[in-house]
Amino acid sequence: MKYKHLVNKLLKIPEQTFTDHDPQIQSASLVAWEGLIDALICSQLHAPESNALVKNPTDQTVFKGSDPTEADGFPKKIKLVMTPLIGIMSSNCDASVHVSCLNTWSYLLYKLDKLASSHSVLKQFGSRSWKSSSRL
């Protein structure tokens, strides 16, 4: 990723807002987090060099070329995006924040599309999600 150091600095801002005591700020942070999902996850899925998603003759979206979930850094990006979501779901915060978190989680799954059933993605989701849900 280009400008990785800049992204790391910018991530400090939402990190602070996720722990704010105001539920509206936390919910707004989760909506903003969807932009990071677009930037980190979706940009890699549709990267021209991977030829990741194409339409087959039956008009289904399939993968061509290398599997983007096996690409360098993809599991790390999933983990980065999921960390605050898991933290919020396992915390005792306002119900509206939990709803916003579930919306963001749903957005992530929607953006992953067919990759959500990929082994490496399921492994990331499975291990982290079950740990979080067992705390609820």
Automatic annotation (TrEMBL):
<keyword id="KW-0779">Telomere</keyword>
<dbReference type="GO" id="GO:0005634">
    <property type="term" value="C:nucleus"/>
</dbReference>
<feature type="domain" description="Telomere-associated protein Rif1 N-terminal">
    <location>
        <begin position="5"/>
        <end position="58"/>
    </location>
</feature>
<keyword id="KW-0131">Cell cycle</keyword>
<dbReference type="GO" id="GO:0000781">
    <property type="term" value="C:chromosome, telomeric region"/>
</dbReference>
<keyword id="KW-0158">Chromosome</keyword>
<dbReference type="InterPro" id="IPR022031">
    <property type="entry name" value="Rif1_N"/>
</dbReference>
<dbReference type="GO" id="GO:0000723">
    <property type="term" value="P:telomere maintenance"/>
</dbReference>
<protein>
    <submittedName>
        <fullName>Putative ovule protein</fullName>
    </submittedName>
</protein>
<keyword id="KW-0539">Nucleus</keyword>
<dbReference type="Pfam" id="PF12231">
    <property type="entry name" value="Rif1_N"/>
</dbReference>
